User: Fold these one by one.
Assistant:
Number 1:
Amino acid sequence: MAKPTIAGNRTGRKLGQRVKNKKMKASSRQWLQRHINDPYVQRAQLEGYRARAAFKLLEIDEKHSILKGARRIIDLGAAPGSWSQIAAKVTGSTDDDIRVAAIDFLEMTQLPGVKILQLDFLDPSAPAQLIEAVGGTPDLVISDMAAPTTGHHRTDHLRTMHLCEVAAQFAVEVLGEGGHFLAKTFQGGTERDLLNMLKRHFKQVVHVKPASSRAESVEMFLLAKGFKGRQAEPDVTEA
Ligand SMILES: C[S@@+](CC[C@H](N)C(=O)[O-])C[C@H]1O[C@@H](n2cnc3c(N)ncnc32)[C@H](O)[C@@H]1O
């Protein structure tokens, strides 16, 4: 896959545009203004990605090389689908030979080579359905899941951390040896128990903040590389 450069505005569209609609709420106007002036949004449109989030995955991959050689990928919290687009490309997934399974409770427009489940990942049937959909042992589990915001910061934070923990548990149950796990988390939010569990099961565990993740956002990514396999020591929580 040709690797796009990460920074800069190559769309030819002017940055620094202002939204003047006075009928809009100030917060909506600010959001829209930031969105249309965001070089990653413009690049996503230019390069045919469904979301600017594509560049977070590409940038993490540029530094940590997690996509190369991936044969089957599970994408958690996948809508609108830019990570799935990349996953389908790197695995060579086609509708005749599906190698990417994606889940989101939001509706997602079909993508060639991607089996989409419209389902809550926390639904007890989700793990089995994902494994069946991806058609074999995955070597990469990626999660960009963020809980819908309630406006209560602490609640939102805890819900997204819970999603990260459940995704990590799923990864250690399904990944093939040598596989990788990438998940959205929050700065200062990763629980020590979760980090310890991942360190027991993976050769390397790091936090990553790609440049395309907005500086003002507390979003970070947790990357666990080199799954040791299920013969690794039992998962005992430390006292
Ligand atoms: C930041 S977006 C993902 C963007 C995606 N990586 C892309 O490249 O297009 C986070 C997604 O997580 C989904 N999500 C949050 N909680 C979920 C859950 N429990 N089950 C399934 N999807 C969930 C949301 O609906 C949302 O679409």
Number 2:
Amino acid sequence: MSRHRIVIIGSGFAGLRAARQLAGQDADITLLARTSHHLFQPLLYQVATGILSEGDIAPTTREILKRHRNITVLQALVEDIDVEAREVRWRNHNESHTTGYDTLIVAAGAGQSYFGNPHFAVFAPGMKTIDDALELRARIFGAFEAAEIAEDEAEVERLLTFVVVGAGPTGVEMAGQIRELASKTLKGEFRRIDPTRARVVLVDGADRPLPVFGERLGDKTRRELDRLGVEIRMNALVTDLDASTVTLRFADGSTEVIESTCKVWAAGVQACELGRVLAERTGVEIDRAGRVVVGPDLTVPGHPEIFVLGDMMSVPGVPGVAQGAIQSASFAASIIKDRLAGRDCSDRAFSYRDKGSMATIARFKAVVSMGRFRLTGLPAWIAWCFLHLLYIVGFKSQIGTLVHWFFSFISGVRSQRTTTNQQMVGRLALERLGAHSSGRLVAGEE
Ligand SMILES: Cc1cc2nc3c(=O)[nH]c(=O)nc-3n(C[C@H](O)[C@H](O)[C@H](O)COP(=O)(O)OP(=O)(O)OC[C@H]3O[C@@H](n4cnc5c(N)ncnc54)[C@H](O)[C@@H]3O)c2cc1C
């Protein structure tokens, strides 16, 4: 009899955790992921603002799993799941493939949501992938370069105005970092412009930054951002956005148009398209964010062989954070192990343990919320550094991150400022060429 086949889609927090926990089981595991790396998303903003290199936060999945002989890693963009034939359909560039499964783990994460305005993405990249972070790095540093050349004062103003949409942890971190970059790192490097004049505007529909951290930490964050020089526009929705402007509408009905070339979209999330595929193939419900409404054991109702984990699952009380992904993967792996061992696990239900939230605002400043416990300032920042370092996968990445942090935090110097035109326009160029262009380009056919 052939061995049990487990297919895992995604090499993020959930997919990687599931793979590691199932390593060594009497099963053949195939991990299919769009990228060849495991990405530590919480530090993407540091890649975008020149503190860390992409290698620091995105070690290669193959290398991480190389000791586990029952795991095969394939770089694969999954496009379809045939739940009747129990096959996953995927492609690498333009080549199509099929992989059969007995147990399937779908952990393909989430992308950015532009709340029904996908065209905003042309002018305001999100921050979900290494490509996004490098594009933003090129756009941010590129705006200062263009401002140094611009003749027209209004154009200089526009180039030196950065708008960050979304005041959750990512938006707050980005806004704080762009201000620090402008006022410390770039100070004295230009001859015609004064980079310290750069405006950073943080926009959100909520009434305070970091709404999930509660009133006290939200207000504290607002004061810290004020001190840094970040302009805050709360109770404001983006109603329009193009190459040179962002239009806001406030809760009181008033509007504001901000002239800005470089925009960052750090608002809403939308689960991976595979959620919709599963809904079509199995009839499972998906919520407004495209997440799959799984049963108490995190499987698709009627399909005990299909688990949906992490950012793709909709489970009441479980937020879309790293802990949700890690804990759901550990739970699913334990069920799969029980099943392989012939133990009954039909009555088991997932329960989430909230370990709290944290966000940095700037160097030496962070906020931490754990149950009723609150921490701010330097102690919170030290806790933030320690925990993030602990969760980065791989000793090499941890050391690389520590070294880069040491230089940036002590001296304000950023060692990862290299940008290329390819980073800036690659995404848009590929989108114009179409989804299946990469194979043809590599073959010299276009
Ligand atoms: C900028 C940012 C900052 C964050 N900060 C924090 C934080 O400070 N603390 C915190 O707890 N959480 C944070 N989060 C949230 C956290 O990163 C996510 O909740 C977590 O990554 C979810 O894990 P996941 O495994 O479900 O998905 P992901 O980690 O997103 O992994 C998804 C995987 O699926 C792959 N994939 C996607 N589509 C396909 C496909 N069609 N075919 C094959 N593979 C596919 C991807 O390549 C990836 O490997 C942050 C997220 C972002 C974007």
